[in-house]
Design goal:
single chain; about 140 residues; mainly alpha
Length: about 140
């Protein structure tokens, strides 16, 4: 488990989630009608989904580093399908706030996806720098 947390530099996911949470709180107090009433559940869902996808990527690429792209895109597709299922369940159970949920869900999805892509790109950049120094 130690290697998993070392793969997330300085707990960047936790800091990112805290910043997003702060942004949600600010929007909640400035524009209360815009924020979905269970946005905390959506935020927790994306936090756990991102954490799980980072764990899967690290676990599989530590065994076979050459399969990074296959593992990354597989987790991205899995993340998309899990998100669609989650959104469908919430929309079917709470039909009165569909618009607010959809907008909040899309914004949070894109934010967490952007975080994951940024984290992967920065790790790849460091990996390629180490590889070019060894040659």
């Amino acid at each position: 488990m130690k290697s998993f947390f070392s793969g997330i530099p300085h707990f960047a996911l936790y800091r990112f989630t805290a910043i997003v949470l702060l942004g949600v709180l600010v929007v909640y107090f400035l524009l209360p009608g815009f924020v979905y009433h269970q946005v905390w559940l959506v935020l927790l869902f994306f936090f756990l989904l991102t954490l799980a996808s980072l764990y899967i990527i690290e676990k599989f690429t530590s065994k076979q580093p050459d399969n990074f792209l296959a593992v990354y895109f597989s987790t991205m597709i899995g993340r998309l399908f899990i998100s669609i299922i989650f959104a469908a369940v919430v929309i079917l159970t709470d039909r009165t706030h569909v618009f607010n949920f959809s907008i909040n869900f899309l914004i949070l999805y894109l934010l967490f996806l952007g975080f994951e892509i940024y984290g992967i790109m920065s790790n790849l950049r460091n990996h390629f720098k180490k590889g070019s120094e060894n040659e």
